[in-house]
């Protein structure tokens, strides 16, 4: 990580200064109980610059580093003659095997080659000169990836959904958890896909799963350092099966469509010219299908080559081929089925 080397002009909000009265420092006076050779007034009189600490802005809030990072803190200070600078960790002396300190004329450097979580805590720099003292505190937090959730289980499966539950990790990596990442993988491809990220609860329902596939699930914990290195996987697979739909038909009464013949469109009287073919039309409705009989002047003309009769979808037609003067008269169409009969007629005149 980068070393903190740029000082701020103004002291940080955590700066604490303990010093004697300025008046005593500038114009020391000898109390009646002090002799002329007392060392304290002589020392204060020799001060050229009182001790003071400039705390860099980045160190005024909790200073966070990852496990294995280098910690290099340079804290500028002032004071003449050269003050005595000392460090403490959680109000105790520093561990010389882990932390090294170098004090210069105008700064003090605290160095940790590979930070570990045990190095977290409150570091205090004290600069003393005579009876005056300036202090500054730095909160160092060394973090690492969290441990995985302790367990995960498949609670329920229905339709295309699966409900999961898990327990928080036993080790958060010395930092607050940012949430959980849930992933799914179907047994066909074996590839893991992220369902959601930074989810804060410990239960979730995964939806829109594909019917016919089987799924496994896993959950990662996440903090400022990233995701946990491992993740527990559900012991049971979620089998998404197609629901079997049973259709029940309601009974109904069979309707009887039987009907006696009934003409819905009658024949129409017409006048034609000798030698020109003429057609007669009518329509009939009946069930079962009726038998159609054509008559001329009450005489059956079935089989006569001069006439051609057709019936299609209830429409009855009669073609009179090149009629002559004696082909005029009353034409009748009769429909007959087992339920009854009906007939219509018209007059044809040949000019």
From TrEMBL:
Region (Disordered): 1-39
Residues annotated as domain Fibronectin type-III: 148-243
Domain of life: Eukaryota
Keywords in alphabetical order: Immunoglobulin domain, Repeat
UniProt domain Ig-like: residue ranges: 261-345
SMART domains, per database record: FN3, IG, IGc2
Protein family according to the UniProt entry: Belongs to the immunoglobulin superfamily. MyBP family.
The protein's name in its UniProt record: Myosin-binding protein H-like
Organism ancestry: Eukaryota, Metazoa, Chordata, Craniata, Vertebrata
